[in-house]
Amino acid sequence: MAIKVDRLVLRHIRMPLVHFFETSFGRTHQRDIILAEAIADDVSGWGEVTAGENPFYNEEWTGSIWPLLIDYVAPRILQYPFLSPADVGPRTAYIRGHQMARGGVETAIWDLQARLNNEPLWKTIGGGAREEIPCGVSIGIQDSIDKLLEKIEVELQAGYQRIKMKIKPGWDVDVVRQVRERFPEIKLMADANSAYTLADTDHLKQLDEFYLMMIEQPLAHDDIIDHAALQSALNTPICLDECIRSAHHAEQAIRLKAARIINIKLGRVGGFAEAKRVHDICQANDIPVWCGGMLESGIGRAGNIALSTLPNFVLPGDVSASKRYWERDIIKPPVEVSPQGTIQISNAPGLGYELDLDYLESLVVRREVLV
Q1: pTM of the shown model
Q2: % helix / strand / coil in the chain, to the nearest 5?
Q3: Catalytic one among 164, 168, 187, 265?
Q4: 332 catalytic, yes or no?
Q5: Catalytic member of 164, 166, 168, 187
Q6: What is the CATH number of domain 7-118?
Q7: Range 124-344 has CATH code 3.40.50.300
């Protein structure tokens, strides 16, 4: 049965983080997030646009999302009879790039379909390979190594199965060495967010001695070829993130042996349909995947949980508890992680969590209703 979206409601919300989060791009103290609510037959589906406040991770940022959704995405979405949410991507594919903006609406329509079917989102997208997902945490660059070690200790005591630490020139080899000396047996990885070049190969090779799970996106955000050269020089697996925006990019990276692991982010690839295609290509080529995070609210976090139930998500992802980021999340109950470092999958319809609408509305900076 076809879905016709009657209304698309956009909300720009502002949420303060519990603690600043620093990468090689800089520090983030609060999140400005665009939410998309797709409504059909008085049923709402919700999606989150995962772009940051600045165009540093990719070309998108919160300020660019609003006019793009109003002027280009909504006119192609509203009142169109979709046979499947998988058809949303092709309807907006005429827009070059801007996967996060397009993906936020696409994920809302997947949630809408799940709610109309009265089934959990993970089932609608074809997931369900596991009843709980393994969780890791991403720890940003800290003011001191002692502060970093303290934060790692807290997260390990909370049960998280893997620690990801951000690195950048000047905060890399010596810092990783001290972390490894303090925690010799933990699953540890480093995320560079494109902070290095191929000229840094000898420097990055020093990380091989610390038996890391992976080094994530060490080179340019749009590069695959140089990553292949770097991977051939390293024992440590490279994981690609920013440069994998489509299943075709994943195919190219695998063919060139540019990475041994791929991180899949819903927004970065434009939603569930393309994320599943990336997943399937990686699975067919024995490349494990995991779900990356973008400091999402509970809506985006719930989508990540559903995605992580696909069978090839075999490594702990960045899907952690709400309380790590927010004093109060916009879903209820908040996402919680067990002492074993896992999140239990919900069987409730759609995202699996109720929205805390009163609190959500209190965070709204601007709103647009499109019909």
Answers
A1: 0.95
A2: 35, 25, 40
A3: 265
A4: no
A5: 166
A6: 3.30.390.10
A7: no
